[in-house]
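Subject: Protein record for review, amino acid sequence with backbone structure tokens
How to read it: Take the token row as a discrete description of the fold.
Enclosed: The protein record, placed directly beneath this head.
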Amino acid sequence: MPPASPGAAYAALLVTAALWGSNAVVARGLLDVVTPAQLAFARWLVVLACLAPFAYVERDGVARALREQWRDYLMLAVLGFAPQTLLTYTALAHTTALVVGLLNSAIPVLIVAISAVVYARRPRRLEMVGLAISCAGVATIVAQGSLSTLLAMRVNGADVLAFGAMFVWAIYTLRLVSRPRGISLPAFTFVAALLGELVIAPITVADVAMHGLSRVGAREVAGIAFIGLLPSLAATLLWTFGVARLGAVRAGVFTHLVPVFAALFAVTFLGEHLYAYHALGFVLVAGGALVCCLVEGALPSSTTRRANAAAS
């Protein structure tokens, strides 16, 4: 089968950013009723239920993967699935969706920094220019167009925890390009999601014992189904597809668009207002992402070969 065009990968990453932008808004509302542990577990339980038929078709390959490569899958499960989600939701319960959305913008910088240390990869000039432009756009939105507002911002423990979750995700993205082969992308996602659920299962059980089972109504069930089907299942598949074809650095730039979409959803669904500084910030963020997309060779050659093999 011929390789997918870069345009398809860029489209996948753009949709992923939009879905993640919606996740922070919806999850923040759910956390008023559902505890972080129970929400993280329920989110990935939806994913497992959807992917179970695909995993059953490839049950021999799934069993072999769990038997022979469980360490690799476990590492990815901890870094990019339910445990990372639990970390994010714990922070989100004590801060705002906007802050968590904005902290996603640290991921591209973290990916460049980690890849420089781990892969001895020297950042490209256009990457640095693009990242700087995007960061300027994010700062414009955070500061609401005022430098004094930016300087007056205070960081709390939840914000630090959220930043830690983004650091974990950056590591996951870099490791994702060499994910284990042998099973399809849906089956891979099922295995990693299953292991992630097993990791946080004791935490979830303890949470239920301490706080009781969260009482959810139709609104909460719909919200959990939404974040399970779209920001979790669909976004994970699209993100893996995009990273495999474009590399971690170039794909990571698209996380700069997460706060842009989060703000747009807040304006559309929560009735918040859109100001001129929002528009300027959006233009800078998108422009920086486009500049980074002009870079050739997003990863070291050896890593790129592994990514291409993983995508097959």
